Backbone:
């Protein structure tokens, strides 16, 4: 699987284009649909699905035109449907922790509430797309509507138990960096470190 990191929009959002041969997935396409359509066309890709990590506007913003032009529904956790503002007829919902098989892609959905109630991480092979749950050295804000700091700590603790060589791909490239490894976060991410330290209290 090839992973293209596309930094788009004014908020350092990272959209991910995953390809296997001519089959493609997009994670969190929100900005610059003309660029995304052009990329799909010039690479002659077959867009199989759109998946969202959560429903914040900067992750879903202009996706409706893309979904309509490709006749696709996007995947989103049900708790974030209202937040996204997307029409329900354009959405499939994740249901808890589950495996999705889309074309050649095997996707493990891991619910990670905290930043929003409907945040998920998407695990595909060794790659983990973390949206605004986990950033290199940080985690997402937990002071927004539907945020829950306690849930965030549980989610970070759960992610800390994934294999250390799991490569994370975050929803923003704050500080110019969107990727890291779970093993690196164990020692360099104070929020994950605290979650691990407080495991007995959290669980
Ligand atoms: Zn967000």
Residues:
């Amino acid at each position: 699987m090839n992973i293209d990191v596309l930094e788009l929009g004014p908020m350092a959002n990272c959209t991910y284009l995953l390809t296997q041969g001519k089959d493609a997935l997009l994670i969190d396409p929100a900005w610059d649909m003309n660029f995304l359509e052009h990329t799909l066309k010039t690479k002659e890709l077959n867009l199989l699905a759109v998946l969202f990590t959560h429903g914040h506007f900067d992750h879903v913003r202009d996706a409706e035109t893309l979904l309509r032009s490709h006749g696709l529904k996007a995947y989103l956790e049900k708790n974030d449907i209202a937040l996204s503002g997307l029409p329900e007829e354009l959405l499939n919902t994740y249901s808890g922790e589950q495996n999705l098989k889309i074309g050649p892609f095997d996707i493990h959905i891991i619910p990670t509430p905290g930043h929003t109630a409907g945040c998920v991480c998407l695990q595909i092979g060794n790659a983990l797309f973390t949206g605004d749950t986990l950033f290199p050295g940080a985690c997402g804000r937990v002071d927004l509507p539907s945020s829950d700091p306690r849930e965030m700590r549980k989610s970070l603790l759960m992610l800390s138990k994934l294999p250390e060589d799991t490569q994370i791909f975050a929803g923003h490239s704050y500080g110019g960096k969107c990727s890291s490894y779970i093993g690196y976060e164990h020692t360099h991410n104070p929020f994950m470190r605290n979650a691990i330290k407080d495991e007995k209290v959290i669980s």
